[in-house]
Amino acid sequence: MHYLVTGGAGFIGGHLVDALIARGDTVRILDNFSTGSRATVHPNAELIDGDLTRPADVARACVGIDGIFHVAALPRIPLSIAEPQRTHDSNVNGTLNLLVAAKDAGVKRIVYSASSSAYGNQSILPLVETMQAAPTNPYGLQKHIGELYMTVFASIYGIQTVSLRYFNVYGPRMASEGAYVTVIAEFLRQRAAGQPLTIAGDGEQTRDFTHIRDVVAANILAMESADVGKGEVLNIGAGENHSVNEIAKAVGGPVVHITARPGEMRHTLADTTQAKTVLGWEAKVRFAEGMGELLKGKGL
Questions:
Q1: Among 22, 55, 114, 176, which residue's CB has the most CB atoms within a 10 Å radius?
Q2: Positions marked active-site
């Protein structure tokens, strides 16, 4: 099959490209390198250095494509709060550009990288797809709008779509600097630099951390499953959550507390029943295993 991976030079997209090529698929990457790195681009992938906000770039990328993994985004909540217009342009308008181009090119299916940020602060855990979305920040709102566009295009234009709501993806090659850093990557960077670990607020906020290998597996299943394609939204999480304080303890070293950031969710925990039912997917990498690999890789 001939697949397009938007954001294929980034963390999630890069791992996905590697897996697809290892299977024997032909892969084209569309990336503007705002977060990705040319050094991680698979040598056997076709690369289009372009931007989702430029319709001509997107149209060119969709020619001759069977399916699209739409991973590209300007991620992270703090960036969306600081630059809501810029992130909206990329995350919402860019997604619409891709849907239009995919429709015009006759692409069969799009697997969209959505976000658990769409849930906001719910009063009940675990988080289930039937809950009303209630994003508390621009990023969560932008990613939820993308889900809605996926559903509408499936209904009106017949292009098959499915949205995967990721829960805090981590693993090798995740960003270690800039506006896109996860708490795990930041703690690892600080520890390696001999700096104290900075904990926002009391550190008791929890996250469902999902390993990159599990996320890649979910994407491939979602592309191939005959049981999805009508705009479904599926949680992709490990089904267990851990506090920021737990992460700091695992990494080790002194800590300092800073003011909690606005717009952050207090807790996340995924109910993955739907993903297991319709895709046959469940997380395989437990958190202790994934963290152990990262710590060993950093020599900690």
A1: 114
A2: 139
